[in-house]
Structure formats: C-alpha cells, structure tokens
C-alpha cells in the first residue's frame, strides 16, 4: 500500500487550511489498494466528477487527519493513470490489462482524452492473444454494432464527452471483431473465451464473417463455455444443463451441415447436447439424404430449431476459398453437375440412407455406453 505524503508548510494557519482541504482516496479492491492524499480544490477544478465527490453536498467533512474515501469500483493502477491525467502528468501504459482497466475508469469518470490514449495503446497491442481481454465488456461503452455490418456512426457533437468515448470505443470494438473474424481458431481456443458474457458469446458465434476452417471449433468453444457457466452456477455440467446454458439460436449458429459425418458424430452428436432426433436429421442432411421420405419423416418428428440449420458457408470462408482455389467457370459447372448427380443418386437409394443413418446412431450409442 503506497501513500503520497502531505506537503509541509511553513505557516501554521496555512498548514491548518491545507489539512482541512485534504482528502485520502483509497482505490482498488479490499486488501489490494493504493492511497493518495490529495487537495480537494485541485481535483475539483479539473473534474466535474471529483467536484461532486469532494466539495459537493455529499462530500465528507474536513478533519485532521483527512477523511478517507474508498473507491472499490476502480482498479488501483487504473486510478493511478486517471489521477495522472487529471493532474496533467504524462501517460505511458505498461500493459494491455492496465490500459483496458483505465478505459473503464475513463468511461466512468467521463475523461474522453484519457479514453483516447487508452484505446490507442490497446489498438497498437491488439492481436489474437489480447483481443478477448480487450473485447470483454467493450460493447457497453460503444455505439450499437450489428453482428454482420460494421457501419460507421455519426461523429459526436462538440463537448459531448460520453459521445466521444463511445466513438473511440466503437472504433476499438470494430477492430476487435475484425481480429476475431480473421483468427477465430486461435481466439476460440483461449480460456478467456469462457469468461465472456452470454450476450458476447452469442454476438461472436452468430457472425457470418468468421473465417473458420472447421465448424467443430466453434461448437467445442461453446461446449467449454456452457460447462464453465454450469460450474459458476453450481450445477453439474451435464449435456442437458449445457444445452440450457445457451439459447437454441447460439447452438444452431454452428453450421453442422458443413461438417463431415465423422466430425459431427464424434463431436456434437457424441456430446449429447443435441437430441437424438436432431442428430439423426443432421446426419441425414450431411449425407445428403433429407430429400427422401425417410429424411422428411425424421424432420417432421423434431420440433425446435431445425429450421435454422443452414449449410451456407460463412462469408469470409467463401471469399477465401474462391480467392485461393481460383476455380474456373468450367470447373464450377462440373462441380454443380456432380452435386446434381449426387442428389439424384441419393433419392434413388432410400434404403441405403436408413442403413447409414442407423449405423451412425449405433456408433454413437456404442461410444456413449463404452
């Protein structure tokens, strides 16, 4: 615990006046705090928030020794930078963690310039390893951003401190989403993903612009998050409890029909999060056998989110594949013809369809009972 000492004065009356004007600010969580002995008037002249807290109607009465105000809502190092900013001292962030905490403080104390400095440091150090720490909770400060379209917002009016902070936070949020879109596999594999809020998980999972090479990566990340949520709530991380931890909209943001049959069976299907009816229909769809009578009967027996199932590639994945594979027009036409022939063959092989689906279910049941 550190403390800035009082500055001694030569004249006794000046000293008494100075003591009455002092207050001790204790910032940080209990047991992990820093103390600052500061002049009320000096801070009140530079910040409306400090003016209300230190000389307003709710300010503590002068005393000797000075009264102590505990600020447990702000991280100690973030408050240190806030105090430096208010006193016009240089700001040099040493870590992403401190800069992110300082951004929280700048938002709470309405310091747009401090927020800008924190955002600039975070942007310089933004990568797949730091993005979730920066992204977490950031949407609370930013202007509304949709999951699919990152459209710019109108600039804030002059003197609008809250608007200026929202503008720089929105810029940072969009940059975070770009990093997550470009490196989702590295991002989703991190433990910090499990600390995101339910709304943040849904925001990321439902993005059409995720450049995922395998949809199972997203499913396993959701599975881990749901298990962590169950543990935080003190309930068993069973398949049913994990299914309830997230909405069907999130679980079906995974493009299951883009998986291979083995990938789906050994992952989502074996987890038990999806019902047996859902799994049976998805396997049939992966194999391309949902156009026959048996496939339609399976679908008709399932109520719930199956209509949300899609086999459309995510936007960036499709663009990435088109750019790198450079498929010619003739090659595309050949692929389309092959798909048509495959569908016709599937329609004429209803019995084989049921057998393959049955084999898949048997394999899953064997894994479960083993």
Automatic annotation (TrEMBL):
<dbReference type="InterPro" id="IPR011333">
    <property type="entry name" value="SKP1/BTB/POZ_sf"/>
</dbReference>
<dbReference type="InterPro" id="IPR011705">
    <property type="entry name" value="BACK"/>
</dbReference>
<dbReference type="GO" id="GO:0005829">
    <property type="term" value="C:cytosol"/>
</dbReference>
<feature type="domain" description="BTB">
    <location>
        <begin position="20"/>
        <end position="95"/>
    </location>
</feature>
<dbReference type="Pfam" id="PF07707">
    <property type="entry name" value="BACK"/>
</dbReference>
<dbReference type="Pfam" id="PF00651">
    <property type="entry name" value="BTB"/>
</dbReference>
<protein>
    <recommendedName>
        <fullName>BTB domain-containing protein</fullName>
    </recommendedName>
</protein>
<dbReference type="InterPro" id="IPR000210">
    <property type="entry name" value="BTB/POZ_dom"/>
</dbReference>
<dbReference type="GO" id="GO:0022008">
    <property type="term" value="P:neurogenesis"/>
</dbReference>
């Amino acid at each position: 615990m550190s403390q800035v000492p009082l500055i001694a004065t030569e004249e006794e009356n000046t000293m008494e006046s100075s003591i009455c004007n002092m207050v001790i600010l204790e910032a940080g969580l209990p047991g992990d705090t820093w103390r600052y002995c500061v002049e009320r008037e000096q801070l009140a002249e530079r910040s409306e928030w400090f003016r209300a807290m230190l000389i307003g109607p709710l300010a503590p009465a002068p005393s000797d020794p000075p009264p102590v105000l505990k600020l447990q809502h702000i991280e100690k190092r973030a408050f240190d930078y806030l105090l430096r900013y208010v006193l016009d001292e240089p700001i040099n962030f040493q870590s992403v963690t401190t800069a992110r905490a300082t951004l929280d403080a700048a938002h709470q104390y309405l310091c747009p310039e401090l927020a800008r400095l924190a955002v600039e440091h975070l942007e310089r150090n933004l990568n797949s390893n730091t993005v979730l720490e920066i992204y977490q909770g950031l949407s609370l400060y930013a202007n509304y951003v949709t999951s699919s379209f990152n459209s710019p917002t109108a600039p804030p009016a002059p003197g609008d401190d809250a608007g200026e902070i929202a503008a720089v936070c929105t810029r940072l949020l969009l940059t975070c989403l770009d990093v997550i879109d470009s490196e989702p596999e590295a991002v989703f594999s991190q433990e910090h993903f499990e600390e995101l809020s339910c709304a943040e998980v849904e925001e990321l999972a439902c993005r059409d612009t995720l450049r995922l090479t395998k949809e199972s990566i997203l499913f396993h990340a959701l599975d881990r998050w749901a298990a962590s949520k169950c543990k935080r709530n003190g309930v068993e991380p069973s398949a049913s409890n994990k299914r309830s931890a997230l909405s069907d909209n999130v679980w079906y943001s995974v493009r299951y029909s883009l998986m291979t049959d083995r990938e789906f069976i050994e992952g989502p299907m074996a987890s038990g999060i999806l019902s047996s009816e859902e799994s049976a229909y998805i396997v049939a769809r992966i194999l391309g056998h949902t156009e026959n009578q048996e496939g339609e009967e399976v679908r008709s027996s399932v109520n719930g989110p199956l209509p949300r199932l899609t086999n459309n590639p995510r936007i960036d994945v499709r663009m990435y594949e088109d750019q790198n594979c450079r498929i010619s027009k003739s090659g595309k036409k050949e692929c389309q013809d092959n798909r048509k022939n495959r569908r016709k063959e599937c329609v004429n092989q209803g019995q084989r369809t049921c057998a393959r689906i049955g084999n898949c279910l048997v394999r899953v049941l064997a894994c479960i009972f083993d």
